[in-house]
Amino acid sequence: MGRLAARLSRRIPKVTSYHLFRRRGAMSHRDTGLLALLNQAALYRLLQRLLLRSSTRRRVVRDILRPYPGCRILDIGCGPADILEDLPGDIGAYHGFDMNPDYIEVARRRWGPRGHFACQRMDEVALPEQGSFDIVLAIGILHHLDDRDAGRLFGVAHHALRPGGRLVTYDNVYIENQNPLARWLIARDRGRAVRTREGYEALARQLFPQVESDILHDTLRLPYTILAMRCVKTL
Ligand SMILES: C[S@@+](CC[C@H](N)C(=O)[O-])C[C@H]1O[C@@H](n2cnc3c(N)ncnc32)[C@H](O)[C@@H]1O
User: Fold this and answer.
1) CATH number of the domain enclosing 112
2) Is the pLDDT of residue 20 over 50?
3) Which mutation among 28, 95, 102, 141 tests ligand 1's pocket best, with the greatest number of atoms within 8 A of CB?
C-alpha cells in the first residue's frame, strides 16, 4: 500500500456491524452516553431484572400473548430473547430478530435450538413466508421506530401472520394525567418515538382493522405506563 493510501485508511473509521446499527437508527433510537451501556446484553438484562416486577413477564405471556401448543411465534426486536424463559416448551417454533449483534449472540448462546435468531434491522429484514406464523410479538420496539419503520413492522407482521393470527405490541406510552415520574422516565428512554395511545392505534389500524388495547400501570417497580395492543389479522 502506498503512503497516501495508508494515511487515508487510518482516517476512515472501520465500519463494524455495531457502528452500522447505531448510525442508521440515530433518529428514533438514542444510545449515546450512559444509554450506550445498554447495548451490552448483560447490562440490559440486569436493568430489566432490577426494574421489572417479577410477575410481569409471566402475566404478559398468560394474559396478552396467550401462546398455545404448536403455535409458531415471530418476535420482532427480540433482544436477548428473555421471553423464552416464560414461553411454554410446547410452542411450535420461535424465530426472533433484532438489530443488536450482542443481544442476538447472547440469545443464540443461551437458547441454542429452542429458537432461530437473526441480526437484522427492521428496514432491511427479509419477508418471512406468507402466513407462516400464528403470533407475532413486538415487545418494546415500536417506540424505537419512526412512522416509516413502524409501518414496515406492521407490514411484516401482517404478511407473516396466518388469517386469524395476532400481533401483540407492548410499548411505553404518553397518557393524560400521567404520573410525573413515569413521564420523566419515558422521556429518557432509548426509544425516541414514544406515542400516545391514539398514535400507536392509528399506525396499527392502517393494516389491522381489529385492534384492542390496554393501558398497564404495574409492570415496573417504579411508576410507568405501558400500552399493550392485540391486532388480529382478519380472515
Ligand atoms: C426495549 S428492547 C426490547 C427487547 C425485547 N423485546 C425484550 O422484551 O426484552 C427494544 C429492542 O428493539 C431493538 N430494535 C430497536 N430498533 C430496531 C430496528 N430498527 N430493527 C431491529 N431491532 C430494533 C433493540 O435492539 C432492542 O433489542
Assistant:
1) 3.40.50.150
2) no
3) 141
DSSP string, 54-88: TTHHHHIIIIII---TT-EEEEET-TT-GGGGTS-
Query: What is the C-alpha separation between 235 and 169, in angstroms, rounded?
Result: 20
pTM of the model: 0.89
Residue 134 lies in a domain: yes
Cell of 104: 442476538
The 10s digit of each residue's pLDDT in 205-227 is 999 999 999 999 999 999 999 99
Ligand 1 pocket residue status of 31, Cβ below 6 Å: no
Number of domains within the chain: 1
Enclosing domain of residue 148: 24-232
Among 120, 100, 116, smallest CA distance to 45 is for 100
Confidence of residue 3 (pLDDT cuts 50, 70, 90): low
**Would you say the CB of residue 96 lies under 6 angstroms from ligand 1?**
no
61 belongs to a structural domain: yes
Residue to mutate, 73, 99, 192, ligand 1, most ligand atoms under 8 Å from C-beta: 99
